[in-house]
Amino acid sequence: MEDNFVEGLTEVTCDVLVIGGGTAGPMAALKAKQRNPELNVVLLEKANVKRSGAISMGMDGLNNAVVPGYATPEQYTKEITIANDGIVDQAPVFKYASRCFEIIGELDRFGIRFQKNANGDFDLKKVHHLGTYVLPMPNGDTVKKALYRQIRRERILISNRFMATRLLTAKDGRIAGAIAVNTRSAEFLVLRAKTVILCMGAAGRLGLPHSGYLFGTYENPTNSGDGYSMAYHAGAALANLECYQINPLIKDYNGPACAYVAGPFGAYTANSEGKRFIESDYWSGQMMQEFYNELQSGKGPVFLKLNHLHPDTVGEIEQILHKVERPSRGRFHQARGTDYREVMIEMHISEIGFCSGHSASGVFVDEFARTTVPGLYAAGDMASVPHNYMLGAFTNGAIAGEHAAGVAGEIDLPEFDSELVSLERQRVLAPTRRDDGIPPNQLEYKTRRLVNDYLQPPKVTAKMQIGQARLAEVREDLERALVARNPHELMRSLEVSSILDCADMAAQASLYRTESRWGLYHNRVDYPDKDDDNWFCHTLLRKVDGRMVSEKRAIEPYIVPIEHEERTAYERLRVSNQA
Amino acid sequence: MSAFDPFEDFGDAEEIAERLTDADPAVRRLAVIDLAETASIDVLPHLLAAGEDHDASVRLQVAIALGEFETRDAARALAKLVKDDDPSVAQAAADSLAEVKDPAAAAEILPSLSHPSAFVRAALFRGLRALRSSSSLGPALGAMRDADPNVRAEALAVIAYLKLEETLPSLIDATCDADASVRAVAVDALTFTTKAAARAAVAAALSDENWQVRAAAAESLGRIGRVCDADVLVKGLGDEYWQVQQKSLGALGKLKVQTAVPAIAQLLESEIPALRKEAAAALGEIADPAARESLMELASDADPDVRKTVRWALTKLG
Amino acid sequence: MPLALSPTTVPVVVDDAKCIADKGCTVCVDVCPLDVLRISDLTGKAFMKFDECWYCMPCETDCPTGAVTVNIPYLLR
Ligand SMILES: Cc1cc2nc3c(=O)[nH]c(=O)nc-3n(C[C@H](O)[C@H](O)[C@H](O)COP(=O)(O)OP(=O)(O)OC[C@H]3O[C@@H](n4cnc5c(N)ncnc54)[C@H](O)[C@@H]3O)c2cc1C
Ligand code: SF4
Ligand code: SF4
Fold it and tell me: Domains plus CATH for chain B?
């Protein structure tokens, strides 16, 4: 098996092109095909759809299931609005909340196993103070398999090991398709399409993990932010990118500590004295700020505490945690001789990233998953629906697939400028034309190290500006000297280019919003206060005439009103009455 | 520049099937994997034939592959492979059997339920559970007398999934099973009805010798109980296991048992933060103004979760 | 600027005696999301070619013969 360059170019035509075959993507493709079986639906994936994306080994559970009898769409919409400091267009959130139960039923029929009581009814767990939203998946390892089975049955065309690099647009700005390159041969693929759905996951390789291992990220490292970069270059608006993703993790292992799994059994996040310290109620930037403060304090570091539970209960938790989602977690603890029954497990915070699954930023979409570019959709972790997690990826993927299929059935294939293809070929293949230069791993390390040094919160204006200047130097190196000796290195090279784009966007967005909001996510030390008068709005970032610009966008009027009283009730809940 | 086909090609089933006659079992095994990948129901006859392979590794692969098909034919083959002498084949077949979706498949599974191996019997009942076929009821009821507790637990699940009032006597009997895990399932299973007999059985389980059964009983009682069931729950507040105390608190809160307020308030002084929090939450649910004073005392508790719950509870008290 | 060869210990190991890549198997190579496994031309067996592993384990889970073991990358251990 040699990894050699092969000269090759193929152009294919389809109706609906779905890019990214992780979670949202397969669902989008499935729904598009079911909506109109006449359509040609293509699912393009950088890895292999069978085992790609955040859920490659399965999941522990649904974090945000809105199930009748446990919560209502209105209640969920309210809570998400409050948890995101009000910076939310409610329509997509409400749409998700109204449709997700139907999707759970569908996933259940696919054979994805959710926790049920002895009578076979869904068995939700209460984790938050207000609603009950967590539906565990004790056999969550079935999820990808079951999804893949459906895709194969519907005869959706699958293109594995192709990495999308740029979108194609028509003269009028409408989407016209995408360009991709094979990750094992560097052959070129031009995909013409009537509608395109972006499902390329989070930007998970933005910050550098504390271990220094480039691929030891919280997110699946195939998600290098290509989707954000492609949307940006196609002229789509990206919302609130300054609202980073930062997660609490098992230190060094850098995988989820899983309060959602262990919480219902009585486990909790503690400081070195074994005491609880988190005041806030939601998985939010506020919570991460408290986590960060405790880490830095004399009572740090922070731990996951299970050693007060009955050994049988711990066994039950281990059974879940070490089997699905990140099954190597058990091996990590074993190698260090850590037993949950005896000691608390050291935790830390993750590197920064972009991800709406856990925060509120992403390619701006409305309640039909439409971006600001006609014909272009986005769903899952890269789209701006806040806190949507896995079920949001499935549900919004479905919404995108259905709408995109409807549109594709009505329009002709847009024309595009073939000049774009040859320009993109030149850009993509440039690192392969050099025999000498800087390899992608070094460029990536440096970019991500700069992200940690200058862009990670607490954010300081002067530091971020220095960061911008240093990143510009790296970009020069990338354009001048990046070298790829085989197609695999070429994939990594293209990923560095996305990572660099995301780093630039992170800096631009963070500098633009001159206030602090969302706790740690956008903690600007030199603008410490929340400024609702000037900043109770979205920020949109986009490419205009080749330049990165930011603007404000008003929040759509709420469809589920939040009484002033409710907002302050939440504040009261989370603010401690002691110092 | 050459053109290429960018789409996955899963191969021609007949061509792949030819490799099933190869002398090398590894090659036959890989052929089974490839057949399953085609996701075409047409390959099923080939897989059924490969299920007879004399090499266990090939049969193992078939047992895994059949999990992809969810049909009655697949169920028939799996019911057979569950009886395989090789334990890994049997285990894989059991797992795949649980994937079968077609209710008609029950007919393929039922004839084997009297198999001498307890593993096989348990696996078959596990396969039957989600099919919710009424034809499974008789055999499942019979299996509640099985000597093996795993078989009884799986059979109990088959019965419980059907949610039939007529099965109440068996479910109630199961709350007195010799095995604690069966008793815990039974206590959970009874929550589909609020019939007095079911409630009484669940209430009785609060005196079970096993703490996990007691905890499950407290939780179940919270779902189907009435205020008149409060006595046993109040007793549960004094359980030697905090887990049972916690579930009892939750249940009393859910049932809004006003008379339990003083007993609950005592647990506000527990050393275990989880109990202080649950007690505060229960007092909030019951919303008896009489609890205000004791709640106020906890407003500056050392544990933030307790403080939050107290603040929430105080708003409920008005 | 010549490129140097920096040694690195890889986390994923394959038991050559169990691996049936020489019979046509490519399962682990196919499923790896990071695309870091290859079949060796020399030995006809699977091996980890690039040290870019998410320790996610599809390679180990899906290998039909149990030939793959995923360890935690050294820097994290
Ligand atoms: C470790 C971890 C634990 C989690 N736990 C939970 C949980 O318990 N509960 C819960 O509800 N949620 C959880 N989440 C969140 C949830 O998994 C995600 O929100 C959801 O899966 C995201 O789906 P997605 O489709 O957006 O992205 P993904 O599923 O990651 O899919 C993105 C896909 O795009 C492909 N791709 C990327 N770039 C390109 C390109 N250039 N060309 C082609 N393809 C490309 C990738 O290979 C990948 O397959 C967790 C996430 C992680 C990482
Ligand atoms: S999956 Fe296993 S048998 Fe197949 S190539 Fe990989 S290591 Fe070898
Ligand atoms: S653990 Fe994951 S990333 Fe590492 S080799 Fe296996 S499949 Fe690939």
Answer: 236-318 (1.25.10.10)
